[in-house]
User: Fold these one by one.
Assistant:
Number 1:
Amino acid sequence: MKHAYFFGYGSLVNRDTHEFAEAHTARLRGWKRVWRHTSLRPVAFLTVVPDETSEIDGLIAAVPGDDWAALDERERAYNRVPAAHQVTHALTHSPEIAVYSIPDGAHGHPTQAHPALLSYIDVVVQGYLREFGEEGARAFFETTDGWEAPVLNDRADPVYPRHKVLTPDERCFVDDQLALRDIQLIRR
């Protein structure tokens, strides 16, 4: 069966945050993952921007019922961009694949008033650990720009609506990676 797919590079890599049953690991070239903020959300989140030299890992997932309108609503801060020619995957057919990206000029850098959420980072990294192991999760940090963003330490009272509890090992991994990058944690 040929479905339309989308490439997930953030929280969608964590299978516990969605019910997209038909999901597969994949690699996207020509895009770089970055932390950004828009007026549509009070906090910073991940997007991708064109970058011919970059490749990032993630998941492709079948669009439920090929209903792009419903998925577009879920991803309303983003534009859907065709990307099938830029995605490497193990599927035996060549489906339509899109990636969601905030349009150029519609986003800015995170600030103290619009930080990234630690609960969101936890979810994303948990997904990368489970899908790609520690090496792949380290690659997530290395292939993501904008780590100078302030990070709100909301672990004790998560703001991110699809937050997940980390194992002690997952939590240590996230904390160690943030410490390696001198990430500024702020409190509410």
Number 2:
Amino acid sequence: MSAAADYEMGVDPERALKYAVQHMRGGDRVEIIEGAIEPVSPTWDHEAAAEAIRDQIKPRVRELDCVTGSGNLDLPGSANWYVPDIAVVPLDIAKGGGSLLPDQTLLVVEVTSESNADTDRVVKRRRYAEYGAPLYLLVDRMERSVTLFSDPGRLGYTKADGPHPFGTRLHLPAPFGIDLDTSSL
């Protein structure tokens, strides 16, 4: 049966695909990147970089009554379902369960790996902006740099602070109002 026939019968292909990745057996976590199912399997050095960011923002996140995590972000109307390395979300929204939308976050952080660097640099940056994530922090381990993107719009982020080499102090604007030490990334 064709995708058009499925749609005519009331089967929404986007919804079916997103349902399937949420109910995979074995606990494997996956993302959907522009319609392609991609496994989420970060290495320990990748996790160490994310943890260095998480540790620094955690006190401010608590003050803001938020949580950090790597829960699912849905991008409705597209074949995208992301699992960011870190998302900062208001606690009351996080307690609602299920996936969230990028515009419900305060900050999204992606840490590049060799297998996904271009996806994080280009595709996710564009999509997070399109779906209203207010701040997108790209920790580019291949380029050894950090860039903070802000002021999202349909065509992308209109402001970029960086790229800055690892070791630079990077200011996270309101509501955070803190500086990140990037020397340990």
Number 3:
Amino acid sequence: MTEPVKKKRPEFRNLNLFSDVRTYRMPPAAIVSILHRASGVLMLVLLPFIIWMFDTSLSSEYSFARFVAAFDGQGMFPGWFVKLVALALIWAFLHHLGAGLRHLVLDVTHKTTKEFGRSSAMATFVFSLVLTVLLGAKLFGLY
């Protein structure tokens, strides 16, 4: 009798922090997941700025004029800095929204294939970046 041919078992090893991490390529789904968490933290950190913007824009006509003047650079910070912070907030919101919708679609449809994960991650990138560029162009007065 012949013995059955044994398949070689896969070898699992730990990643070396100094040599392997720099060469490891993360898939787009992993990058979207990390950025989903980072955008949530960014929105949490910028929450006082959001509350200030909301309160200042709705209190009175004078406070609304002061709010608009902050984007022109008449406040404590230069106008371009306030616009960059607002643009970061816009990106964080759009990316968090897109990644959250992606996760909902994954949960509802149970499409857990590698191809769908890659394509939905790329769609999330395109969604958040294109809308951020469009809204950023409007914010900086390009149209």
